[in-house]
Amino acid sequence: MNKVILMGRLTRDPEVRYSQGEQSQAYARYTLAVDRRFTRNNGGDSQQTADFISCVAFGRSAEFAEKYFHKGLKLVVTGRIQTGSYTNRDGQKVYTTDVVVEDQEFAESKNASAQNTDAFMPVDNRPSPSAAGDGFMNIPDVIDEELPFA
């Protein structure tokens, strides 16, 4: 069985391209930074590092990634590992390992994602939520954005 489940953050915006031909199909490439913990032998200190895993999505999944995914977003991806190789311009054989995405989901709320992105934005540029006197935010009646679920 070849099944992979990953949870991590996008290292940059997805790179989306379209295949040539009559039935053009989108494909998206992105890299997930997935936390990995390991324990040192000399004192049991736990340190954290990350693996950077290349993912590729096709079709509607790629179009969804193009529209809604951005750097820093936390995702859960399920798929399969696929290996391959090619010869580069220098004549050297290069081996590749990718996760072919079968399913991709948001791993945190939009607010949590925005807060995570805001950590890298200067304080002066951050949008300030407008709160009504009752402590709730005012939400406009018309939302121009198309929601991914409906």
Biggest pleated sheet: 5 strands, mixed, barrel
Estimate the global geometry from the Cα principal axes.
globular
Low-pLDDT stretches? 120-126
Radius of gyration: 20 Å
How many distinct beta strands?
Answer: 6
User: How do the strands line up in the largest sheet?
Assistant: 1-3-4-6-5
Helical run tally: 2
Instruction: State the helical fraction.
Output: 10-25%
**SS-based class:** mainly beta
Our estimate of the beta-strand percent is: 35-45%
Order of helices and strands: EEEEHEEH
Distance between the first and last residues' Cα: 33 Å
| Mean pLDDT across every amino acid position | 82
Walk me through this protein's architecture.
- This protein has 150 residues and is mainly β.
- The chain has 2 helices and 6 strands, in the order ββββαββα.
- It has a 5-stranded mixed β-barrel with strand order 1-3-4-6-5.
- A hairpin with a 6-residue loop joins strand 3 (26-39) and strand 4.
- The longest helix is centred in the middle third of the chain and has 9 residues, at 60-68.
- The chain is globular and about 60 Å long.
Offer a concise description of the structure.
Helix content is 12%, strand content 44%. The chain has helices at residues 60-68, 110-118; strands spanning 4-10, 15-18, 26-39, 46-58, 74-87, 93-106. A five-stranded mixed beta barrel has the order 1-3-4-6-5.
